[in-house]
Amino acid sequence: MKEIIKNILKLFLPPRCIKCGTVLGDDDGLCPECFNNLNFISEPYCQKCGRPFEEIKKQKKLICGKCLKEKQSPFRLSRSALIYDDASKDLILALKFMDKTENAKVMAKWLHIAGKDIWQEGVDVLIPVPLHYTRLLKRKYNQSALLSLELNKLIKKEVDLSSLVKHKKTKPQVQFSGKERIKNVKDAFMVKNPESIKGKRVVLIDDVMTTGSTLKECAKALKKAGAKSIDTLTVARVI
Q1: pTM over 0.70
Q2: Whole-angstrom Cα distance, residue 95 to residue 102?
Q3: Residues 162, 155: contact at Cβ < 8 Å?
């Protein structure tokens, strides 16, 4: 019966590309043209932070120069599905600011694939990067939470929406660059239920990694609460 109803709905409300609106033959979310314009991150990439390498044909696992220098990274692994560019930017901004919440379902599939190294290492809980309550009231939803809940359907891991909170109101990170980003989010996050985090392998979920400042501040709070390890998984990253 569910399949019959689904087919009837498709007849009157056919699935459309979430970017250009072209009618699709199935529920993949993007038409072939829009899909081919996206720059997915694939190997070879840094085995630590996931940054893609250019023109490297060696098959062995490599670590980038930045990770070799940074001895105290709070992250076990970092992975992203896409390079943040003009093609991916529209999809992410539509999810974030234009109520295109259906984009989260498609992006969660990409996160599932991009996070394969993380799943192999072992995961206990998914935690979305939280919004300050004033911004959440204004936006009405947290795009990172939507991504986490959709990803949960694919990997069946706990989603914790309440332990990590943003208790300090900050200005949007897009207004800053470099060290100003670090200063803007410094000590902005806290864990209000440390007992729910202690000893767990956490995956932080967000839409975009730019400098990593926000994710690092989240990791600092989670480490203080006793998290065993912290990975990051984002839809896209700035290269």
Answers
A1: yes
A2: 8
A3: no
Distances (CA, A) of 134 to 138, 140, 141, 162, 227: 6, 10, 11, 16, 27
Q: Is 187 left (phi over 0), alpha (psi -120 to 50) or beta?
A: left
Which 3 state secondary structure label does DSSP give 82?
A: strand
**Percent of all residues in the chain with a pLDDT value above 90, rounded to a whole number:** 76
Kindly list the distances between the CA atom of residue 58 and the CA atoms of 45, 52, 108, 116, in Å, as whole numbers in the listed order: 11, 13, 30, 21
Please calculate the CA angle 22-28-31 and round it to the nearest 5 degrees.
Answer: 30
> What pLDDT, on a 0 to 100 scale, did the predictor assign at position 11?
52
pLDDT in tens, 107-144: 999 999 999 999 999 999 999 999 999 999 999 999 99
For CA atoms 129, 132, 135, 141, the dihedral sign is: positive
Q: What is the pLDDT of residues 47-100, one digit of tens each?
A: 999 999 876 666 678 899 999 988 789 999 999 999 999 999 999 999 999 999
Return the SS3 of 221: helix
The single-letter DSSP state of residue 51 is: P
Q: What is the CATH number of domain 71-237?
A: 3.40.50.2020
Both tokens of 92, joined, read 């992410």
Can you tell me which residue has the tokens 């990253």? 237
β-pairing, 164-166 vs 189-191, is antiparallel
CB contact set of 92 (below 8 Å; sequence gap of 6+): 84, 103, 207, 208, 235, 236
Choice between 54 and 16, residue whose per-residue pLDDT is larger: 16
